[in-house]
Prior knowledge:
Layout: H1 2-20, H2 26-42, H3 60-73, H4 80-91, H5 108-119, H6 126-137, H7 160-163, H8 165-175, H9 178-195, E1 196-197, E2 202-203, E3 213-214, E4 217-218, H10 222-236, H11 244-263, H12 285-300, H13 306-321, H14 350-366
Antiparallel strand pairs: 1-2, 3-4
Helix pairs in contact: 1-13, 2-14, 3-4, 3-5, 3-14, 8-9, 8-10, 10-11, 10-12, 12-13, 12-14, 13-14
Amino acid sequence: MKVLRLLLIVAVLANVGTVQAQDVQPEEVKQVMKKVADWQIAHFRDTFSGRKNPHHPLDWTNGAFYVGLTKWAGMADDDRYYNWLKNIGTEYEWELFKRIYHADDHIVGQMYIDLYRKYNDENMIKPTIDQFDFIMYHPAQTKFEWKSPFHQSRWNWCDALFMSPPVWAKIYNITGEQKYLDFMMTEFKASTDFLFDKNESLYYRDERYMSKVDNGTKVFWSRGNGWVFAGLVNVMNELNPESKEYKYFLKIYKAMAERLLQLQTPQGHWAMSLLGQEFYPTPETSGSSFYIYGFAWGINNGILDKSTYGPAVEKGWNAMVGYVTDEGMLGYVQPIGAAPGNASPDKTEVYGAGAFLSAGAEVFKLYGGKVE
């Protein structure tokens, strides 16, 4: 049985290698992005990862989808994607989700602010700014240790660095008020000081994994570091490249990029345990899509060398496209978790589609696509 399973894995990976040999064409990038976006919208309230109930529309899972879908909406040839997103905001009166301090419940603010930039309707952002003002003037004092009371009131798990900091950066950008950036910088630095492994240039998911080993390797979760890597990009997009704040994030970004380049598998994806390719051969598309997004963005912005990082983007993107079904479902998305686990071709999640759309937006530009 083990031999048969191994042969199946080898066959899948061999097929992926064939897909990667194809050149990337911008119109084909756009076509597959549309297919994934349309499929995910059509199945928005369905479950494909063993869950009994769908996610709430303001849940972080959907929020991550909105981040990618907003990028696709800016590329698409009609406004129905913007209208779909706007309907969600209208239905929930532009409120964030339930928990005041929890980063996961802030992520929909990224979509609200992007829509405000298009429609210039202050109702879209007022609840988010009001809530962030409350947080800023009543900051959480909790510790970063995992078992501390109310510990997730601060960014003590690496996923949080994708969810909340870009919202703070966007508010700073649209208001011009330094206080929002200062608050975000203080909290981001505290989180990084706690979670970042300087020797590996990677983030632990949270305190529980700092002392763990998996088959003799440190545990650095792929999607967790994907959240961080994409979050760095989304924050830097809001900052002046000459500012000291931008340079702080850029230093982390470059260190992570160099390390992640070393860790890409020959098949183009990244293993669910970044240092444990041998033990996690199954593809995983959510973390991998975020790395492709980050690499392509770095090349597009003159930060990463194209001759060094371009092949990784091409190999990675073609691998991701190979996991999209004819109908448009992105497979091999690891279900919700906090550590390396399992993924399969029939498992997907909305945040995986969001990561894929973010990656596609930058890959499209990298290969000559023009956004009107």
